[in-house]
From TrEMBL, chain B:
Keywords: Pyridoxal phosphate
Residue ranges occupied by any Aminotransferase class V domain in the UniProt entry: 152-283
Role played: The glycine cleavage system catalyzes the degradation of glycine. The P protein binds the alpha-amino group of glycine through its pyridoxal phosphate cofactor; CO(2) is released and the remaining methylamine moiety is then transferred to the lipoamide cofactor of the H protein.
Name the record gives this protein: Glycine dehydrogenase subunit 2
NCBIfam families per record: PRK04366.1
GO cellular component: cytosol; glycine cleavage complex
Domain of life of the source: Bacteria
GO BP, sorted A to Z: glycine decarboxylation via glycine cleavage system
């Protein structure tokens, strides 16, 4: 602290004309000052001591760099290009809070480029800066649909990520409140893991604000006829909200092309490290129709002319409708969010280009299918919904006679983090959700299969 | 007073990334697929048919483009006394730790045995916040300060629902001066919002509070000191009134910087509080997050907190997910973990004495700044009748100068950047002070920095009288000239993506 230098405080006190620091706290009544002394661990004043403390603790962690990791389910291990780390680590981006449209021109342009490139992947014209997480993005999108339709029921897939679903319920419930939204689960087709269209149609009605589905879905399954889902929702006067993994969009159809009204998704796959779950963020996008734009809750960055002919700058569009401008009358609420990840995403997408997205999508698809075929050959191991998924898939271990927990415990000393144990949430026996991405070589997958064969014996 | 010098910001005339590159250029390549990998063809109903309209650049071109953009961001290169956000030093040691694979490359679903280091840090930091606040338990799931306010509303819902009173406890009481997130999150959670007006003393009267609070009140959300730098000396009485009505009372510690080490939310009687680790505790704000709203509460409210909580056992640290009364998830996983680690690093590097000293400095520096600003003609301190020293920030007004010259606070903000000074924070909505600005000196900047900042304000005040057009047309030395904002509310002209821009402005694109 610059002002902790000897004499600095006294110098300022002299100029103010105050006799002591305590005098400046005159607004606080004496009996408000804390009585209990602070009980903090000893100060680590030097950089060396602090570094030692941090590393001593952090090195107790075991990493996905040193182990072979197959965990996904909301946070996924993808390659983060080194340039992304350099740019998001730039102090101008990392520490600045807020300037003006002119003094923060570069950051604002990077934000616009995040939205622009993501819009190109989604085939949509409006992309908001990311909110806290994918689950939060879905929650805000459902409430947008409630405001748009005046209806208060949302249909979501039975096979939803419990983590995201819990966030969605927090945004929609409880039922005692006037503005609550009823969350209704749509059954899955047990043969495919996809939405049961008959159940969807049966539950669609004049009270449904939105249908939400994901592509690829939580369990990795791909809805092969998303346009039919959107058409059914539209016929019932409901909004179609889709959740997409942006890394799939080099090979999977853009949601803007199959009738999605509002699109959400995670930003972590776009160049953000897993960070123990601290890398999440969620985007919201739509067509450029005023009725949608007027329902956004956060920061929409628009390009704009400046006073200099032919020059462009950037600023916040439709800003007064968010809670900063309108407090409780705003469209939902917003605050400091995850905007640094917008810059990571802008850099990442800039590095990838159309061919990069196509290649990574194909790579993930073929590596996942290869893993499925290897695992499906292991006695006692069965892959659910083989050859119909992207990036993640469900593996059943019932015939191995061991629980997923036991299998994962056995894999761990072998340097493998097995898939997420979903036995309690899926009602399909002992099942794990495996995630395979571009980081897994064919040899890695054979290594997994070999070890699973051994531990399942 | 010195004459501040104008700077010339970097100006690259940088095209939008879509205008750069050429077909076939690549910034990222992937390994050649191994021969054994199968080719996969997706059904036509879901396969992408078009080629996404993305730019194609080499890695170096991408790096250079974004370096140009970083250079056209004033960031921390000048002096930023951006009030209500508390500009901090963000230590590079903490950044170094956060970029290590032991933190960056770990997954929250790993077995806890493989996450003992990060769990230990989170647990230890929870204890630090407990000491600073007197609360019994913290959770870091909230993605920022507003999300922590939302956490409070969700906890309050669960608390009242558990008592069977949610149907009647339907109101949240706050003041018109509270951060907009407080009423906004309460409204989103389904509560009716009651905003108390301020009295001449700068805070709502006890009579107004008593009139607003009843058996319908679910919770009260309040900050103290507020963004004017005014401390409500009747806050204990507020707590008493809340408790008498059976309501919960939440301390929005947005302005903790000036009182850290001095006050305990628990000793004052609050049920819950939040800290913004991305400001008060030295984790970078990153231009708007990733942030962290650390939410803490008493034992009575702890069962309703979002899960998981971190528990220390004889055998190490575990995650407690089995919390049947929990309000549910506020956000996936356990929060912005690297930011929590950075806040832990900040607290450890400061220690108890450093934290106490930092609040001393922030209040001394603010009052030094007030002392000098008061000598500039045309500026007025908010609530001029309150002569007591303000806390770590003060809201000021340019109203006298605006009336004299027509130069307002937005014009000042734009002009400041020409001197290498980050534009100031004006005010949250609603503007109850005309032409407001809210500087906060904090403990980061030197006296020379603060003097420079004030000299720039004095210089612009002088310009407002001598050459008001110079100020109104500012900035002049920034990467771009003043942005014309009339497109931002016009659906026919706004363009949030390059696609939209091309469609709407094809002739000029």
């Amino acid at each position: 602290m610059a002002l902790s230098a000897p004499g600095a405080i006294q110098d300022m006190l002299d100029q103010i004309g105050a006799s002591s620091v305590r005098d400046l706290f005159a607004q606080i009544p004496q009996d408000h000052f804390r009585k209990e002394p602070l009980n903090l661990p000893p100060q680590l004043a030097s950089e060396m001591a602090l570094k030692r403390d941090l590393l001593t603790k952090l090195k107790k962690n075991r990493t996905c760099e040193d182990n072979l990791n197959f965990l996904g389910a909301g946070v996924w291990q993808h390659h983060v290009p080194a340039v992304v780390d350099e740019i998001v680590g730039r102090t101008e981006f990392a520490t600045n809070v807020w300037g003006s449209y002119q003094s923060d021109h570069g950051r604002n342009q990077a934000w616009f480029e995040f939205s622009s490139q993501l819009g190109a992947l989604l085939n949509l014209d409006v992309v908001q800066l990311p909110v806290y997480s994918w689950g939060c993005a879905i929650g805000h999108a459902i409430r947008m649909a409630q405001r748009l339709t005046g209806r208060s029921k949302v249909l979501v897939p039975q096979y939803s990520d419990p983590e995201r679903l819990s966030v969605i319920r927090t945004y929609c419930q409880p039922s005692e409140m006037e503005n609550h939204i009823q969350v209704v689960l749509v059954a899955a087709d047990p043969a495919t893991g996809r939405l049961d269209m008959d159940d969807l149609r049966a539950k669609l009605g004049p009270d449904v604000a939105a249908v939400y589905f994901e592509n690829p879905a939580y369990l990795g399954t791909i809805e092969e006829t998303p346009a039919d889902i959107a058409a059914a929702a539209r016929a019932a006067g409901a909004e179609t909200i889709v959740g997409v993994d942006p890394l799939s969009l080099g090979v999977l159809a853009a949601p803007g092309d199959y009738g999605a009204d509002i699109v959400t998704g995670p930003v972590q796959p776009l160049g953000v490290h897993m960070n123990c779950g601290g890398g999440v963020g969620g985007f919201i996008a739509s067509r450029d129709e005023e009725r949608y734009v007027r329902e956004y809750n956060g920061f929409l960055v628009s390009i704009a002319p400046t006073r200099r002919d032919g020059e462009f700058g950037f600023g916040l569009a439709a800003a007064h409708q968010n809670s900063y401008g309108s407090r409780e009358h705003g469209k939902d609420w917003t605050g400091n969010s995850t905007y640094l990840w917008a810059i990571a995403g802008a850099v990442y997408m800039g590095l990838m280009g159309p061919d990069g997205f196509r290649e990574i999508g194909q790579s993930i698809l073929s590596r996942g299918r290869y893993a499925q075929s290897l695992l499906d050959q292991i006695p006692g191991v069965r892959v659910l919904w083989r050859d119909t998924t992207f990036k993640e898939f469900v593996v059943n271990f019932d015939d191995a006679g061991k629980t997923v927990a036991e299998i994962n415990d056995a894999l761990r000393p072998r340097g493998i983090f097995g898939g997420k144990d979903i036995s309690d949430e899926l009602a399909q026996g002992q099942c794990a959700l495996y995630c395979v991405t571009e980081v897994h070589s064919a040899a890695d997958l054979r290594h997994l299969a070999q070890n699973l064969t051994e531990v399942c014996k | 007073m010195t004459q501040p010098r104008e700077i010339q910001a970097a100006r690259w005339n940088e095209p939008v990334i879509h205008q750069l590159g050429r077909a076939g250029a690549r910034g990222q390549r992937f390994p050649t697929p191994e021969a054994e990998l199968p080719a996969v063809t997706l059904p036509g109903s879901i396969a992408r048919a078009d080629r996404p309209d993305l730019p194609e650049l080499t890695e170096f071109e991408v790096q250079r483009h974004f370096l140009h953009l970083s250079q056209m961001t004033l960031g921390m290169m000048g002096v930023s006394l951006f009030g209500t956000c508390t500009m901090k030093y963000n230590s590079k040691t903490a950044e170094y730790a956060a970029q290590r694979p032991e933190l960056a490359e770990i997954h929250p679903y790993q077995h806890p045995d493989t996450l003992q280091g990060v769990l230990e840090i989170l647990h230890d930091f929870d204890l630090i916040l407990r000491s600073l606040s007197g609360m019994d338990q913290f959770v870091f799931q909230a993605g920022g300060g507003a999300d922590a306010a939302y956490t409070m509303t969700a906890v309050a819902r669960a608390y009242w629902a558990d008592r069977g009173e949610l149907a009647t406890r339907t109101e949240m009481v706050t003041s018109i001066q509270a951060h907009p997130c407080n009423p906004a999150t309460a409204a989103a959670a389904g509560f009716k919002v009651v905003n108390l007006p301020l009295e001449e003393n700068g805070y709502p009267s006890l009579d107004a509070l008593k009139a607003a609070v009843s058996d319908r009140t679910a919770l009260i959300m309040i900050n103290n000191p507020d963004d004017m730098g005014i401390y409500n000396p009747e806050i204990k009485e507020w707590v008493r009134v809340a408790k008498e009505a059976g309501a919960l009372i939440f301390y929005d510690h947005a302005n903790f910087n000036g009182v850290m080490g001095k006050l305990s939310a628990r000793e004052l009687g609050f049920d819950a509080c939040m800290f913004m680790l991305h400001k008060t505790f030295g984790a970078p704000k990153a231009g708007g997050g990733p942030a962290v709203g650390a939410y803490g509460c008493t034992e009575e409210l702890a069962p309703y907190m979002p899960a998981p909580l971190i528990v220390k056992t004889e055998n190490g640290y575990r995650l407690d997910e089995d919390r049947p009364k929990s309000c549910g998830k506020i956000r996936e996983f356990w929060g912005n973990v690297p930011q929590v680690v950075k806040a832990y690093a900040w607290a450890r590097s400061m220690g108890a004495e450093g934290i106490d000293l930092a609040s001393d400095i922030s209040v001394v520096a603010n009052n030094y700044m007030d002392h000098r600003l008061a000598q500039i003609d045309g500026l007025a301190r908010s609530n001029p009748d309150i002569t007591a020293p303000r806390m770590e920030m003060t809201r000021w007004s340019l109203a006298p100068l605006f009336e004299e010259t027509g130069v307002g606070t937005m014009d000042f903000a734009n002009r400041m950047a020409d001197f290498g000074i980050d534009p100031w924070w004006m005010s949250h909505e609603p503007w109850i002070v005309p032409e407001p600005f809210t500087p906060e000196a904090g403990e980061l900047w030197s006296k020379a920095d603060i003097d420079l900042w004030i000299d720039v304000v004095a210089k612009i005040a002088q310009e407002a009288r001598e050459n008001p057009e110079r100020v109104k047309t500012a900035p002049h030395n920034q990467p771009v000239a003043q942005v014309k904002g009339d497109v931002f509310e016009d659906a026919s002209t706004w363009a949030m993506t390059w696609r939209a821009y091309q469609r709407k402005h094809a002739a000029s694109a």
